[in-house]
Automatic annotation (TrEMBL):
<comment type="similarity">
    <text>Belongs to the RRF family.</text>
</comment>
<feature type="region of interest" description="Disordered">
    <location>
        <begin position="131"/>
        <end position="158"/>
    </location>
</feature>
<dbReference type="InterPro" id="IPR023584">
    <property type="entry name" value="Ribosome_recyc_fac_dom"/>
</dbReference>
<keyword id="KW-0648">Protein biosynthesis</keyword>
<feature type="domain" description="Ribosome recycling factor">
    <location>
        <begin position="20"/>
        <end position="182"/>
    </location>
</feature>
<dbReference type="InterPro" id="IPR036191">
    <property type="entry name" value="RRF_sf"/>
</dbReference>
<dbReference type="InterPro" id="IPR002661">
    <property type="entry name" value="Ribosome_recyc_fac"/>
</dbReference>
<comment type="function">
    <text>Responsible for the release of ribosomes from messenger RNA at the termination of protein biosynthesis. May increase the efficiency of translation by recycling ribosomes from one round of translation to another.</text>
</comment>
<dbReference type="Pfam" id="PF01765">
    <property type="entry name" value="RRF"/>
</dbReference>
<protein>
    <recommendedName>
        <fullName>Ribosome-recycling factor</fullName>
    </recommendedName>
</protein>
<feature type="compositionally biased region" description="Basic and acidic residues">
    <location>
        <begin position="133"/>
        <end position="158"/>
    </location>
</feature>
<keyword id="KW-0963">Cytoplasm</keyword>
Length: 184
C-alpha cells in the first residue's frame, strides 16, 4: 500500500517538475537561458540541445549572448533559434550570437498566458492520471482480498490529498507565470 502511494507521489512530483520546465520555456519580457532548453540544432547531422553547443549570458534584461564552443556550429544554432517559436532574430558577429528580445505586445502576452494555461492543464491531467492508476492498483488489491475495505478507502483518501497538493502546486506555478507575463 505505502509503495503504491509513494510511487504515485513521486510520479506526481515529476509531473509538477515537468510543468515547471514547460513554464520556464515560455518567454516573458526578460531573457533567460531556460527559453532555449527545448531547442535542438542540427550539429554534424545529429539533433543536439543548444545547452551542449554553447554558453548563455544575459547582460541586459532583453538581451542574451550565446557563445558556441565550436564556431562551425554557429549557423546551425542561428537556424534553430530563427525556426523556433521564440520570435527572436539572432545576429552573428563571428564569435557570438546576440539575441535581442522584442518587447511583448499585449496580444502576444495573452497568447503566452493561453499557452501557460494549456501547459498547466496538461500537468493537472498528468497528476490525475497517476491518481487514477494508483486507485486502480488499490482496487485490484482490494478485489484480490490482499487488503481490506478500510485500508483501501484510507489509501484513496491519501491519494486524493496528494493529488490536491500537487495540483495546487501547478496552479501556483501558473499564477506566478501569469503575473510574470503581465508585468511590463
Amino acid at each position: 500500500m505505502t509503495d503504491i502511494i509513494k510511487d504515485a507521489e513521486k510520479k506526481m512530483g515529476a509531473a509538477v517538475d515537468f510543468a515547471r520546465e514547460e513554464f520556464a520555456g515560455i518567454r516573458t519580457g526578460r531573457a533567460h537561458p531556460a527559453m532555449f532548453n527545448k531547442l535542438m540544432a542540427d550539429y554534424y547531422g545529429a539533433p543536439t540541445p543548444l545547452q551542449q553547443l554553447a554558453t548563455f549570458q544575459v547582460p541586459e534584461a532583453r538581451t542574451i549572448l550565446i557563445a558556441p564552443f565550436d564556431r562551425s556550429a554557429m549557423t546551425a544554432i542561428e537556424k534553430a533559434i530563427r525556426d523556433s517559436d521564440l520570435g527572436v532574430n539572432p545576429s552573428n558577429d563571428g564569435n557570438m550570437i546576440r539575441c535581442i528580445l522584442p518587447a511583448l505586445t499585449e496580444e502576444r502576452r495573452k497568447e503566452y498566458i493561453k499557452m501557460a494555461k494549456h501547459k498547466a492543464e496538461e500537468g493537472r491531467v498528468s497528476v490525475r492520471n497517476v491518481r487514477r492508476h494508483a486507485n486502480d492498483s488499490v482496487k485490484r488489491l482490494e478485489k484480490d482480498k490482499e487488503i481490506g475495505e478500510d485500508e483501501a478507502s484510507r489509501a484513496e483518501k491519501q491519494l486524493d490529498a496528494a493529488t490536491k497538493k500537487f495540483v495546487d502546486q501547478i496552479d501556483e506555478l501558473l499564477k506566478n507565470k501569469e503575473a510574470e507575463l503581465l508585468a511590463v
